[in-house]
Design a protein that fits this description.
Elements lengths: L1 H8 L5 H10 L5 H15 L9 H20 L6 H11 L8 E8 L3 E8 L5 E4 L5 E4 L4 E5 L8 E11 L8 E4 L3 E5 L3 E6 L5 E8 L2 E5 L7 E3 L3 E6 L5 E5 L3 H4 L6 E7 H12 L2 E4 L7 E6 L4 H11 L2 E6 L2 E6 L1 H6 L2
Parallel strand pairs: 6-7, 16-19
Antiparallel strand pairs: 1-2, 2-5, 3-4, 4-6, 5-6, 6-9, 7-8, 8-11, 9-10, 10-13, 11-12, 13-14, 15-17, 18-19
Helix pairs in contact: 1-3, 4-5
């Protein structure tokens, strides 16, 4: 199996080998072996592995191989459930080694597909029903093998942007521990990290209904241009109109920081650059407004030190923000 995994990573696996790999991944311990071999492959890559534009060509080869494989698989009803898994496994748009998946049995053989985006990465994938998702850094979605037939339910931990294929007979739902976002066909963003006290939903197109845990129907139906904030502690829902691009541009690699306190800013920086930060109490509520496009972390830190009385210091693997008392004395 090692040689087939190697071929898949390099875009050389044929249809038969792809099928064999999918069947092998159903076994209990296969994912661990797959992840280990994938990491070894990543470590062995050097800067010359992809020539200029080579990654794009590699991605196109993967998509082409998937289309060829689908033409043969669609004739087999026995393999229909595997198609749903393959749709994510092989249709990772802009496929990168930072995005990975796992399959596991649960409750009488139900299979689940999980897609994750590593820290510092944004991943894009196509679901079996044709819906497109973007996963932000450190985020994960999961769904079972009946997705697209008996349900269109995904569980989200983290932040994701959804462009949902319309299906009036089968609504699309995004679940987390406190709130369900239910739609029929629309474009929207959900930010719901388990560690956060709040859940944020931004709607760009269509409409969505918000259903709190335990409720049978939506307590609020959003319209385009609205941002909904649900507090998990007091169960309050606040809705306002916003410029939605400020909340959704991350999927294009742009991060907008708008009048946010430093303790929230570093969460965005940790996701963007996969870097751990610490704050002194004196600086955690200092507010910042700036936009990150292609800047390095060092450039962003220099900018932050210019616009506010903070000083960043490297302490082993952690960057610590402290109050810059010298700069503070110069403030009016």
């Amino acid at each position: 199996m090692r040689s087939i995994i190697q071929k898949y990573m390099e875009g050389r696996a044929n249809e038969k080998e792809q099928k064999e790999l999918l069947v092998w991944l159903r076994k209990k311990d296969s994912r661990v072996d797959f992840d280990s071999q994938k990491l070894d492959w990543e470590r062995n890559l050097n800067s010359q592995y992809f020539p200029k534009g080579g990654e794009k060509v590699w991605h196109e080869i993967q998509d082409h191989m998937l289309n060829v494989s689908f033409e043969g698989w669609q004739h087999s009803k026995k393999m229909s459930w595997m198609l749903k898994i393959a749709a994510v496994f092989l249709l990772l748009i802009g496929l990168s080694t930072s995005t990975w998946f796992l399959l596991r049995g649960h409750d009488g053989g139900t299979m689940y597909t999980s897609i994750m985006a590593d820290k510092g990465q944004v991943s894009k994938a196509v679901l079996p029903d044709g819906s497109i998702i973007w996963l932000n850094s450190g985020s994960e979605i999961k769904y079972n093998n009946r997705f697209g037939e008996g349900n269109r339910l995904v569980e989200l931990q983290g932040e994701a942007y959804f462009k949902v294929t319309k299906n009036a007979d089968l609504p699309f739902s995004v679940n987390n521990s406190e709130l369900t976002v239910r739609v029929f066909g629309t474009a929207f963003n959900v930010k719901a990290f388990d560690s956060d006290d709040e859940i944020d939903i931004v709607l760009e197109e269509g409409s969505v209904g918000l259903i709190p845990l335990g409720a049978k129907k939506a307590v609020y139906n959003m319209v385009p241009g609205q941002h909904a904030n649900f507090n998990k502690l007091n169960k309050k829902l606040l809705v306002r109109h916003v410029n939605t691009t400020r909340f959704t541009s991350w999927k294009e690699g742009i991060v907008n920081i708008f009048d946010q306190p430093l303790f929230l800013v570093i969460e965005r920086l940790e996701n963007r650059y996969n870097q751990h930060f610490e704050l002194e109490e004196e600086v955690k509520d200092i507010h910042f407004t700036f936009t990150i496009k292609n800047e390095s972390l060092s450039d962003i830190i220099k900018l932050m030190e210019k616009i506010a009385p903070v000083k960043a210091e490297q302490k082993e693997n952690t960057i610590v923000f402290r109050l810059d008392k010298t700069q503070k004395l110069k403030l009016p």
